[in-house]
Amino acid sequence: MKMDMNVFHDLGLEEVNSGVYDGEWARPSGKMIDVKSPIDGSYIARVSMATESDYERIISRAVEEFKKWRMIPAPKRGIIIKEIGDELRKEKKNLGKIVTMEVGKTASEGEGEIQEMIDVSDLALGLSRQLYGLTIASERPYHRMYEQWIPLGPVAVISSFNFPASVWSWNAFIAAVDGDVVIWKPSSKAALTAVAVMRVIERVLKRNNAPNIFFLMVSPGHDGGEWIANDKRIPLVSFTGSVAVGKKISENVAKRLGKTILELGGNNGAIVSDKSDINIALRGVVFGALATAGQRCTTTRRVIVQENIYDDFLERLKNAYSTIKVGDPRDKGVLVGPLIDEDAVKNYERAIETAIKQGGKLVFGGRRIKISGCENGHYVMPAIIEAKPDMAIVSEETFAPILYVMKYKNIEEAIEIHNSVPQGLSSSIFTNDLREEEAFLSAYGSDCGLANVNTSTAGAEIGGAFGGEKDTGGGRESGSDAWKYYMRRQTVTKNWGKTLPLAQDVVFDF
């Protein structure tokens, strides 16, 4: 596949690109990654990986740049981030093409990835004037108490391939208006997207003569993750990825009493009631299960259907799947592109084989397919499997388009089935019954961080805090008051009187 050279030129990319940025692009010195497209397996470019000495230079520079950035008033920091958003808007199509080529998203989803970054920059601008503390009533006369929020320092963001730019921005843009600087370790499966994004951001920082607030370090997952997790100079690590790796990073950061934001596995369920609008439910489930070829953290992996409509809904679901075009994501009408690599295809095949052995019934798809012109791509036919809630495979997250379909009798049983898996990211119920809706949102309802009514498990908006519970890790990013994760809280007490009264009426005279 020959990349559009105009795109390369506009974004400042080359055939061999440095994956190390600390205000300047380091000369490639480490091992190289060949960037190959999952669309057809073809070579796109190369990116150099960071060495440990590169990392040490980055973190040392980040510590110094933080001292400058934290002293710039937050509203001024917000203007810089907004200008970055404006620059991203100019390059939206070009960056979207890079996302499509590198991770296989459709053109619409590739550009949507960049639009999400733009939206987060707008959110960050508004937030920069709303970093509020509390005023607290003191029990002592002539005393005033309040809270203030202070930047943490250099924070690290370790991102995944499936959202190679936007999830980084959820963390980075919010942390930046808070006054932090950010070290980014992207997935090595999406290194070129990270380089391209940083090339665009670099223009704004240099144009404004701003401190270098964003740093890039492409590295093998294990090495870079270890350097970051064990470094006391990094007070916060945000990690998006698997449960197993997240636990290891959390353990290492906790040993040095650092903080983590963890966005780990999702095994998201949708309940479809017999009191739902069946057409809305069908569209919501199909989008949730198939967007990004089933490689979203919020992908719908389980659908729990009321037994009275089970057969009808399953038939509609199979018919809908049969109309979905799988293929080259650059082609018009294609909604499902390739999986990221050959390992992902093997995991897909292994999960289906396991599900059948455990008693599941494959009723649609479930095989590798070849796409004309993309013979070396990683394509599969989305699978629908009738399953039982107690099948072990149903409790596992397979990052592929596999949908397990189960039935239930009443809403209490549906919620019990829904909550029976270890993960707790996103959830949905499709119903027009107020009692069912409220049950789903009650204390015994969905145990996930995200709960949706009559809409998909996938497609979260940036204004709400994003994250999940249980094995998903408990982290929160982006909207609401997630900004507080990137700052430290300080309670201030001021005595403006002429005596020294003590709290709790303690007497200490001398």
TrEMBL record:
Keyword Chaperone listed? The answer is: no
A Gene Ontology molecular function term for this protein is: aldehyde dehydrogenase (NAD+) activity
SUPFAM superfamilies cross-referenced by the UniProt entry: ALDH-like
- UniProt-listed Pfam families: Aldedh (PF00171)
InterPro entries in the record, alphabetically? Answer: Ald_DH/histidinol_DH, Ald_DH_C, Ald_DH_N, Aldehyde_DH_dom, ALDH7A1-like
Residues covered by the Aldehyde dehydrogenase domain: 25-492
Q: Name the UniProt key words of this record, in alphabetical order.
A: NAD, Oxidoreductase
CDD domains tied to this protein? ALDH_F7_AASADH (cd07130)
Q: What does the subunit section of this Swiss-Prot or TrEMBL entry state?
A: Homotetramer.
Instruction: Indicate the family of this protein.
Output: Belongs to the aldehyde dehydrogenase family.
**What is this protein's record name?**
Aldehyde dehydrogenase (NAD+)
Q: Which organism is it from?
A: Picrophilus torridus (strain ATCC 700027 / DSM 9790 / JCM 10055 / NBRC 100828 / KAW 2/3)
